[in-house]
Design a protein that fits this description.
single chain, about 140 residues, alpha+beta, Alpha-D-Glucose-1,6-Bisphosphate, Chain A, domain 4, seven-stranded antiparallel β-sheet, 3 helices, about 25% helix
Length: about 140
C-alpha cells in the first residue's frame, strides 16, 4: 500500500462479532456514513465477499467503485480498488486484536488517491475523517447488536 493513514478503537465485543459486522456489506448504508449502496458482486470461499460494489456520497467524494477483499479469518481483512470513477486507488485494512476480556482493538488503515488534484495534507485529513467516522460507526453498530 501507498502512504497510509491509520487509527484504532476498542469495541466491546469479541473479534468474530466485529468481523461479522464488517463482512455484512448489505447493512453498510445503515451505519457507514456516505455509503448509499454496498452489494457483494462476487462471493469467495466461506461465503465472504471477494468483490463488493459501492456507491458513496461523502463530500468531496461522490463515486461508484468496486473493491476486492482478502480475508484472514477474524484477524484481518484487506481491500484494494478494482475500478472506480473518481477514485484512482483505495487500499485499506481492518486489523482485529482480541484483548481477551471480551473487547477487540480494531485498527483501520487507509490509503486513497483521487483523480482530482488534492494537496497531500488535505488527502491525509480526508483519510483521517473517513477512518474516524468508519471506526465510530462500526463501534456503534457492533455494540448495538
Amino acid at each position: 500500500m501507498a502512504e497510509q493513514t491509520s487509527s484504532s478503537i476498542t469495541i466491546d465485543a469479541p473479534p468474530a462479532d466485529v468481523m461479522a459486522v464488517i463482512a455484512d456489506f448489505e447493512s453498510y448504508p445503515e451505519w457507514a456514513k456516505g455509503v448509499q449502496v454496498a452489494e457483494m458482486t462476487e462471493a469467495g470461499a466461506g461465503g465472504r465477499a471477494e468483490q463488493v460494489y459501492f456507491s458513496l456520497d461523502v463530500s468531496p467524494i461522490k463515486d461508484e467503485y468496486t473493491l476486492a477483499y482478502d480475508w484472514d479469518a477474524d484477524r484481518e481483512v484487506t481491500w484494494t480498488l478494482v475500478e472506480g470513477n473518481m477514485l484512482k486507488a483505495l487500499d485499506g485494512a481492518y486489523t482485529l486484536v482480541d484483548r481477551g476480556n471480551g473487547t477487540t482493538e480494531v485498527t483501520y488503515r487507509l490509503a486513497l488517491d483521487v483523480s482530482i488534484p488534492l494537496i497531500g495534507m488535505l488527502k491525509r485529513k480526508g483519510e483521517k475523517i473517513l477512518i474516524d467516522t468508519a471506526l465510530k460507526g462500526l463501534k456503534k453498530r457492533v455494540e448495538s447488536l
